[in-house]
């Protein structure tokens, strides 16, 4: 978040017609410039950026340092290619433009795109570099395009003369199918000396890397903070609700632990549905898998409403059969008292009767081993109970009548 | 010790202007990063003989010191080694954000040629009439500046 005024020196010489960068050197350069402007203005709203061209009829300042991104992008339109690049003059004019910046508190920085051959010799460049250093101006050099003998050395010498405290950088970009902007994103020119990474640059890098966002919920908090906040809040609400349901599940789990009942079979189907819908949301949660299953069971039950009430009671009854006889009697009575959907029960019984289905459900339950003999006994006994329940339900119906 | 000597030279009504320096605006162009202006100016640092202000690329330094209120500047003490200390110092008042190119644009309020005595701590008395209402002072000088005390 360094407060900075930047002047970008564009090379619009004849050498920029070449197509070794996709689509042409000039277009690649323009894209990179747009990206840099965006990154600078995003990292600090008070940053200003200006643009000048080094070739053509002469060095021409297109826009003086401004924080208005639209103005900068507009001036990139309709630029003509021609002439020869004048590196020394370009840098000097950039320095002058920076000197007359409005906010004197901004750090001064020049970014040079050196695409054509450099006709000045090392000595001249070193003197320019020294002058920049003396006036506390940082310099970033993008060496691309024409690869001439001695060009990298000259530019390195210039950088050496300017550099103080690693605030200046040079990047050599050879021709490649990758866009110039993509290569630049990962360089210190964008990341700003490693401190205060621009969220823009990081997001752009992530997008370039193929849509894998490093941020939660796939939304960049910098790009859309309200959406990110809303997502985060809803996630926490969901989590809180799940925790409340988990407490309920813990109580039920103690009873459900011993075997599959009608509710669990229902839960399994519900679980699958829930898992599909919440998988995206839960993807980055650190819930354990078995916790998840428990919670989802609880969710299913809480969502299922009245019908789960029946199944709960049935479950209680099945457990009661293996456990407390008195409790079983009491539960039976309570079931008799409430009018239930007989058809529902029979459906559930049928499901339960299907041994294979139930055993597959059991297998998916955490902490239940279907091959465990006690579980097998339970299954057998449950089948009997389901038949008993049918008879019992018929009995109370008759009694009610 | 040298500090008290210089104090004895000044008249009673004068104070060390260190308290009136606006530290947020203090700048120095062409200083080397390891030997910065703070070494020369700040209380505690400037008494330390080991710390000094050094120039970087060439022998010119541009020091900009703003004050928190309008002051009258009487004298400056600059200490440095004989060989590497400053020789010619130009003073500009109330000019914000000068660069090395501006230095020749307007005449300085005062110019001082430093003798070895000055470098040992003798205060440089300035043309008092030119420094009557000073908001900021810029000095440009040669390398090896050691200590600055203003009165």
UniProtKB/TrEMBL annotation, chain A:
Residues 242-270, 363-401 are annotated as: Disordered. GO terms for molecular function: polyubiquitin modification-dependent protein binding. Keywords: Proteasome, Repeat. Pfam families: UIM, VWA_2. Gene3D superfamilies: 1.10.287.3990, von Willebrand factor, type A domain. Residues 242-260, 387-401 have a biased composition (Basic and acidic residues). It comes from the Eukaryota. GO terms for biological process: proteasome-mediated ubiquitin-dependent protein catabolic process. InterPro entries: PSMD4, PSMD4_RAZUL-like, UIM_dom, VWF_A, vWFA_dom_sf. One of its GO terms (cellular component) is cytosol. Belongs to the proteasome subunit S5A family. This is 26S proteasome non-ATPase regulatory subunit 4 homolog. The lineage of its organism: Eukaryota, Viridiplantae, Streptophyta, Embryophyta, Tracheophyta.
From TrEMBL, chain B:
Belongs to the PITHD1 family. InterPro entries: Galactose-bd-like_sf (IPR008979), PITH1-like (IPR045099), PITH_dom (IPR010400), PITH_dom_sf (IPR037047). This is PITH domain. It comes from Dillenia turbinata. SUPFAM superfamilies: Galactose-binding domain-like (SSF49785). GO terms for cellular component: cytoplasm. Residues 6-151 form the PITH domain.
